Amino acid sequence: MSLMSSIYHEKQSALLCGRHTLNSILQGPALTDVDLASIAQTLDAEEARLLSSPGGRLDPSLAGGESQNVSTSGNFSITVIERALSIYNISLERWTHPSCASIRQHPETAEAFVCHLSDHWFALRKVAGRWYNLNSLFPAPSFVGDIYLGSALTQLSAEGWSIFVVMGDVARASVAFLNAPLSSACPEGRRWTHEEAAAATRSADDAKKRGEARLAYEQALEFVDANQGRVVTLRTAVPTSGSLAPHSPAISLGGDDEDEDLARALAASREDAQPHQMSEDEQLARALAASCADR
Fold it and tell me: How many domains, the chain?
């Protein structure tokens, strides 16, 4: 694997997404939890000195020793993120700042973005000319096309995410880490090729779709039979001639063909067993079952 074209990504551990985001920007295991905790401690000390100086007002939480820059679960403040990046002559500028007007028009000309909402951070980063979403909640780097990048950022902003443009020579700052071995201090880190990342993303997406289809199908089964005074789960056999067979073997979860056959059998069984006019609720459940069969 060529390190110049590999994509470094860290998967989520505890609430350490701040560290994952920083290392995604620097494309290597540049910073550890200890490094960031040390920065947070330094910032706390600086803030305490400032607030306890003549004319300063000491925050009660600072007097009690509570950190304003890192939570007990490991979530770091924006101040820690910025101080850590400043070590590499990198800074953050808000996406909405007037100086970022041209980047808002052409986001593909930037090198990286940092996104933050509540307790979660993640980075969008250009690597070897391609944009990737390096969210630590993802199983692998997720490719983002240049055309989609702008709409993705706009959507994130509309959803309340704070977006920061990463300013500075990001590529130069990353050079030192391209050849760095993976670190035991950042065990969640891995380097991916574009092809490996794409395959892992497809696999995760397929698994998610199967799970969503199975959930919709199970809910349709339960909904239909609950309205007849009977509740069916995926471990109950398909009714035949309007009767239940509660002791039949469990339905296999093995393949799409079985799901399709099962959904068709369910629809046929309902049609045979219910010659009366269906209510709107029953029609909705039939439509759900048919939808699952189409998948």
Answer: 2
**Which residues, in sequence order, are CB contacts of 236 under 8 Å at separation 6+?**
244, 245, 246, 248
**Weakest-pLDDT range from 20-29, 40-49, 100-109, 164-173:** 40-49
Helix (H) or strand (E) holding 119: none
User: What tokens does 13 get?
Assistant: 């551990």
Residues 289 and 103: their CA atoms lie apart, in Å, by 47
Catalytic positions are 17, 120, 135
Is the Cβ–Cβ distance between 257 and 264 less than 8 Å? no
Rounded average pLDDT over 98-124: 95
Instruction: Enter the pTM of the model.
Output: 0.67
- Whole-angstrom Cα distance, residue 245 to residue 240? 8
Q: How many CB atoms lie within 10 A of CB 158?
A: 8
Same domain, 177 and 227: no
25 & 62 share domain: yes
Distance CA 79, CA 74 (A): 14
| Residue 166 belongs to domain spanning | 7-186
Token pair for residue 75? 């979530």
131 plus 62 within the same structural domain: yes
